[in-house]
């Protein structure tokens, strides 16, 4: 059995109590449809080695209090940052943001051209069909582990 498979099983096992807690608590913060891809080279990339990636997902706040994504981590990268993409003079640029607010009763979609989790200095190549583990940290809901499918 590969260590990757073991870590997948571990991630699956870990996600169960989180779901149970969320339902028992009435809470509310869900992460749906997480997926990842290797990042396209962008202006400013150092081009040194390991490369970067991006993770996208739908953040759903079904509760009755505002929450916010405030941090992220992944087993696939040394560093994970919250980023937003924007267009400047016709060029796609991106920058780090401190948080993504998810108002109560609302959804925020992280998607190409918008918000994403930036994976910096990948520890391994992102290959389509594989999965990576990502932990999203919310201001109120705390850390929510998700499995992102690489596309
Ligand atoms: Cu980015």
> Which ligands does the model contain, each kind named once?
copper (II) ion
The CATH homology group name: PCu(A)C copper chaperone
> In this structure, how is the largest beta sheet organized?
10 strands, mixed
Q: Tell me, what's the shape?
A: globular
Distance between the termini: 24 Å
Mean residue pLDDT = 85
Strand content bin: over 45%
Output the number of helix runs.
1
Structural class comes to: alpha+beta
Number of domains: 1
**Radius of gyration over C-alpha positions, nearest whole angstrom:** 16 Å
CATH topology: Immunoglobulin-like
> Which segments are poorly predicted (pLDDT under 50) over 5 or more consecutive residues?
16-25
The appropriate CATH architecture is Sandwich
CATH class wording? Mainly Beta
């Amino acid at each position: 059995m590969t260590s990757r498979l073991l870590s997948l099983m571990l991630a699956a096992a870990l996600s169960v109590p989180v779901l149970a807690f969320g339902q028992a608590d009435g809470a509310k913060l869900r992460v749906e449809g997480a997926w990842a891809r290797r990042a396209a080279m962008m202006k400013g990339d150092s081009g040194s080695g390991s490369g970067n990636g991006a993770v996208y997902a739908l953040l759903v706040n079904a509760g009755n209090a505002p929450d916010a994504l405030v941090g992220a981590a992944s087993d696939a990268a040394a560093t994970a940052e919250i980023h937003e993409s924007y267009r400047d003079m016709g060029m796609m640029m991106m920058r780090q943001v401190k948080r993504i607010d998810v108002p109560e009763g609302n959804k925020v979609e992280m998607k190409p051209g918008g918000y994403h989790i930036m994976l910096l200095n990948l520890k391994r190549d992102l290959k389509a069909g594989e999965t990576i583990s990502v932990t999203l940290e919310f201001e109120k809901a705390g850390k929510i582990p998700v499995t992102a499918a690489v596309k």
